[in-house]
Amino acid sequence: MPRRDDISTIMVLGSGPIVIGQAGEFDYSGTQGARALREEGYRVVLVNSNPATIMTDPSVADRTYVEPLDVESVEAIIELERPDALLPTLGGQTALNLAMDLSAAGVLERFGVELIGADVAAIRRAEDREVFRDTMAAAGLAVPENRVVSDMEAGRRAVAELGLPVILRPGFTLGGEGGGAAHTPEEFESMLEKALAASPISQVLIDRSLVGWAEIELEVVRDTADNAVIVCSIENIDPMGVHTGDSVTVAPVMTLTDPELQRLRDAAIAVIRAVGVSTGGANVQFALDRASGEMVVIEMNPRVSRSSALASKATGFPIAKIAARLAVGYTLDELPNEITGVTPASFEPSLDYVAVKIPRFAFEKVPGASSELTTHMKSVGEVLALGRTFGEAFGKAMSGRELDVRPRTPRDGAEALEILRTPSWDRYDVILWALANGVGEEAVREATHIDPWFLSQLGALAAARTAVGGSLDALDATALRTARRAGVVDRDIAVATGATELQVGERRRALGVRPTYHAVDTCAAEFEALTPYYYAGFEETIAPRSSSSARAPTGSGRGSSSTTAASTPPRRSATSAMRR
Amino acid sequence: MSPGETWVVLEDGLVLPARSVGAPGTALGEMVFTTGMSGYQEAVTDPSYLGQILCFAAPMIGNYGAGPGLDESTRAWPGAVIMRRAGDAAGVGGPTGWRTWLSERGVVAVEDCDTRRLVRHLRDRGAMRGGVTTEMLPDELLAMVRAHPVLDGRDLASQAAGPARMLGTEGPRVVAIDCGMKESIARGLVGAGCRLDVVPAGVTAAEVLARDPDGVFLSNGPGDPAAVTTVIETVRGLLGEVPVFGICLGHQMLSQALGLSTRKLAFGHRGANHPVRRSDDGRVEITVQNHGYAVVDDGLPDGVEVTRTSLFDGSVEGIAAPELRAWSVQYHPEASPGPRDARYMFSEFVSSLGGGR
Amino acid sequence: MINCNPETVSTDHGVSDRLYLEPVTIDAVLDICAAEKPVGVIAQLGGQTPLRLARALAEAGVPVLGTTPAAIDLAEDRGSFGALLDRLGLKAPPWAVANGGEEALAAAERVGYPVLIRPSYVLGGRAMAICDSPEAVRAYIARERPEGVLLVDRFLENAVELDVDALSDGEECWTAAVMEHVEAAGVHSGDSACVLPAQSAGPGLIAELEEQTAALARGLGVVGLLNVQFAVLRDGSIYVIEANPRASRTIPFVAKATGVPLVRHAVRLMLGASLAELGLPVAAPQRHVAVKEAVLPFSRFTGADPVLGPEMRATGEVMGLGGSFAEAFAKAQRGAGQALPRSGTAFISARDADKPEAVALAARLARAGLELLATGGTATALAAAGLAVTRVHKISEGAPHVGDLIEQGAIDLVINTPQGGQGARTDGFEIRAAAIRAGIPCITTIEAGAAAAAAIAAGGAGYPRALQDGGRPTRPGRAFRPGPTVV
Description:
The structure holds three protein chains of three kinds.
Chain A: E1 9-13, H1 25-39, E2 43-47, E3 63-65, H2 71-81, E4 85-87, H3 92-104, H4 107-111, E5 114-115, H5 120-127, H6 129-138, E6 146-149, H7 152-162, E7 166-170, E8 180-182, H8 185-198, E9 204-208, E10 214-222, E11 228-236, E12 249-251, H9 258-275, E13 280-288, E14 295-301, H10 306-315, H11 319-327, E15 354-360, E16 381-387, H12 390-399, H13 413-420, H14 427-436, H15 441-448, H16 452-467, H17 477-485, H18 490-497, H19 501-510, E17 516-519, E18 533-537, H20 562-567, H21 574-577
Parallel strand pairs in A: 1-2, 1-4, 2-3, 4-5
Antiparallel strand pairs in A: 6-9, 7-8, 7-9, 10-11, 10-13, 11-12, 12-15, 13-14, 15-16, 17-18
Helix pairs in contact in A: 1-10, 1-11, 5-6, 13-14, 14-16, 15-16, 18-19
Chain B: E1 6-10, E2 15-20, E3 26-34, H1 40-44, E4 52-56, E5 60-61, E6 80-82, E7 85-86, H2 98-104, E8 108-111, H3 115-125, E9 128-133, H4 138-147, H5 157-160, E10 165-167, E11 173-178, H6 183-191, E12 195-200, H7 205-210, E13 215-218, H8 229-238, E14 244-247, H9 249-257, E15 261-278, E16 284-296, E17 305-310, E18 316-321, E19 326-329, H10 344-352
Parallel strand pairs in B: 3-4, 4-6, 5-7, 6-8, 11-12, 11-13, 13-14, 14-19
Antiparallel strand pairs in B: 1-2, 1-9, 2-8, 3-9, 10-12, 15-16, 15-17, 17-18, 18-19
Helix pairs in contact in B: 8-9
Chain C: E1 19-20, H1 26-36, H2 48-59, H3 69-76, H4 78-88, E2 95-99, H5 101-111, E3 115-119, E4 129-131, H6 134-144, E5 149-154, E6 160-169, E7 173-181, E8 194-196, H7 203-220, E9 223-232, E10 238-244, H8 251-258, H9 262-270, E11 289-295, E12 316-322, H10 325-335, E13 345-349, H11 355-367, E14 371-375, H12 376-384, E15 390-392, H13 402-407, E16 413-416, H14 427-438, E17 442-443, H15 446-458
Parallel strand pairs in C: 13-14, 13-16, 14-15, 16-17
Antiparallel strand pairs in C: 2-5, 3-4, 3-5, 6-7, 6-9, 7-8, 8-11, 9-10, 11-12
Helix pairs in contact in C: 2-3, 5-6, 10-15, 11-15
């Protein structure tokens, strides 16, 4: 159906100041949403207390309020501006909670403001743990089991029911202080005693431990006609036990078979239907025990989330823009895929590249803080890298981190494994070191629970980095191209050869080893992309001159021989030829 | 064979270097690509790929091994498989490494090929003949490619059909005309509660009716649908006598039996993300597709309606002739690999025959 | 556009003509420049990250638009920057350069305690510390094991820190803002609250700061944005702390507060326009009083001590706009999640140096109707000034102590300035942690405490101001009584 014209002014709530777990991704979503709504002809009133945002640039909305995001302040703005509707799903948990508070306080009713993009009942079904569990059960899906206890006896009963290992979370402590994972009955006894003491109200939540299970997220979008699409599947390389925001992740999912993947897809769509999100996006997180096939729904965020920004950049599908338009009445098939221009938004993006996200930490800024990665998020930013293969994307992402502190270098393999048993920000540096220095993939897997496929990929990257050791002059075009295609960037080659990054780059370019640029087009090249959004690869297409001559040397760059000149499309310009 | 001396060649002269990861040899066929991101073994064991060379647009293939649990048939069908990166470890998918699996089945397979370049080329120029070789130089291969028969006009259904067999123990009896039927389709039908009587393509209408079917199923398969004249003739003889349901090639054969014609698509639809709109309620299904031809909807005969349309290019994705109790879809409700949103069709068919779970 | 951060608007492919999602490293950037052959690269709008590449880009023949990499390096290099200041007749605090931890002690002796020590080319102020004595210097070296060049500056006690953001075309300079930090110099500017316009700087001082900024802009050859941090002592002497010839963290705040699109102007300057061509007004419009407050992620870090020091720890910021400093400050506190109470009980514990100011702010709170609680020495000082105050136990003095009272909800505001030294076991840490757990505002410097008292004394919740309204409250006439503007 066409967009609603019974509403004319829409209020959009931002996510406030950047904090851990809720950062610039909501500036991206909110800006996209506000712009989309204005393009549709609505008057947009935007509220965000954080001036360090694009969305608060006065050109983005019709009325921009940099005011506190609390009920009293927003009520005053509602009273002035009299919006017809409020869109709270683009500003993270802050905006959603605020919308619920405004609703509970009767403000929305008093001023006749309709909540769009989400409804109170759906939000409750997703966020109240008890209601969520029941909602999932009704949909035939399981959530992780837990019990809440206040004394040692109840704790022992809980473990008898749940089994070991378990995760203890003392209630109302900061950052999970006093909790942890217990693997044996003795460990549990002592940890429970500590946990009960740590909680000011002597309350401990005991979760059945899913540590080591695979963790997968799906970004889903649904409209009022019940069309639901999966925008992106994301696999957490750090398994359960590390918050998804602190995990290294990859899109699309790499290690699941199609039956496993479809099971998750079906479940994600069932979840979004059961919770009742009918105009917008949601993030659904699953844990999967590969050995037994057991699957549970960890949580569902009935709104645009941190992962939505990641999914949008990884696939080219602008979730927030689409969600804003769905909120005002469109269905997915009525919206265009702006990247192709000729197909609708009711489809699922297909990737012909690999996207790797690595989080960025800042523990060095906070002396005394624990740098162990757990179930409470601690990262302050992230790097996304796209590559033709997993190795290329991963190596690139590592190089994009801009570290202020050096990762640890273990003394030996034994120390490496010891370090790896506790998830840390530099674990991948340590893994690469370990794999290059005689530690087997199986030992690393045992210490980290990381899937063996990823470890074999890291092993290949480690080997490729080692292979460029020696003198820079000894590396010919083939060697350099092979290294870059394996994810070994110039800086890594510099480290291995003792040259500078600039020297490596100079030599590489002089030998004609230059990147090719490829478009993110949502459709794996099935359609031509209108939007120029690129990443680098090191592809080459060389044709031999004739069947009797020697093979043409590789690495001669984009020069074409006569056989290809006749068959490849004429080049429009030198620069556009490099872009594929 | 040392790496780098493997070539992919297209009939218009495009040459791409690659590295062999499968069996040595030379393969010729129609070059096609799929954008699906999952289920490599299910794709390669799909008989619809007979006569073709399959390029995976998704770059990382073979991540979880291979094994009997994921077979859609008993062999690999494309003459060659082109990948950007192919793994070889065992995994949840099975105990055999993917490269090993391909080699054991004599499939010419390559990695390190610029697959995106290849896909864009086919997208811009259309499907065409191609070849992959580990044993000769590109010019020689090019000559062979240009001498190879095109897929158009070729009836490959009988080559792809499996042996006659019976599946399922209760419920209405469905005779399935096998033109290269995927296992998951058989499972879907049997799972919906029917007895499945599978007969290879080539059977006549009389022979089918002699088996006393409650319904007839027309399977997917390789080749040019317009060339499968024997099966089309058979279907004509069945129309009105018994309910008919068809998938993919089966849809194309049913359509032709009803008087419609088929055309070649520029480069086919192969993937797991194609939106199809239902004409009854306007809803969109995300579908699995693998076809190079489509039914043309100019001049629909009386009693025939288009039930599904592609939202990518407007092509026909489903038809029905309600009075004749015949209907079909171009796409793959059994998925495998891909989204399973359309699996309800098996129940729909079987329960329309008076049975089903 | 080149960036690898998926969270930002800059990596929305609709924002630029071409987007490259690539690491911001020299090899990726040079490859893209080779393919695109741009007329130039803008490196001064992305913080330290692109600046680090600026020199390599210039050496590779890629034009860097705006302030030259050489000028950027000059501003960072203590030696050349110090020479420039001398040449311009400007003052910097005594400083020395130490090569590694070994030389740091000798450098500190030369400079004179207290000293601020940090490695050069810092990002966000990490690994900085204020050291009062040789022992503190030794502890810093042992803890941080700093490598490379260390900067050792005299730390100026009780100075007011003022930030100036300006636009320059290399010759002329236009001041966009003079901001005042609401906490003493020494707290990294990313972590403190600041107010625009500066509240305690008279026109004479402002003019002098603008002149010094202009001199620096000319001296450095700034084309684009310039940020200068000054410290002003009680005797009026002005010291240049640092100059950053690039967009600073305060630019978004200043742009929203003044309504001047600073980045747009900076880009035009970088593309060759002169300042005159921009058509700027003589002075930046004063549309609002604007307060920026830093937001810190304390609850995420188990065991971390939420004391503000030279290490920058803020993850984000909020802004409050008002017709007065008090209104703006109150709104900024609300936005930061620590709304100031309008009534109830305030707890004050001040170190010795802060006690006089603590008395003044306590008096204001008492007049506003709040009850006062204090520990030991502070209580004595308040009582001596004739204020009604209830003495409470420090945590180390045993229950019932202030930590208990906070948990019971008996306290609505904590003003607690540390006695010095960060220690997870001191009373101060416990009190501050308890306040955060209880969700009540916890103010850790006396300057911010004074601002809070002023806001509470003024009363009222403030009035919404749309940026499009050019500085008026959105519905004129709604009564709001402005409070005193002196901190």
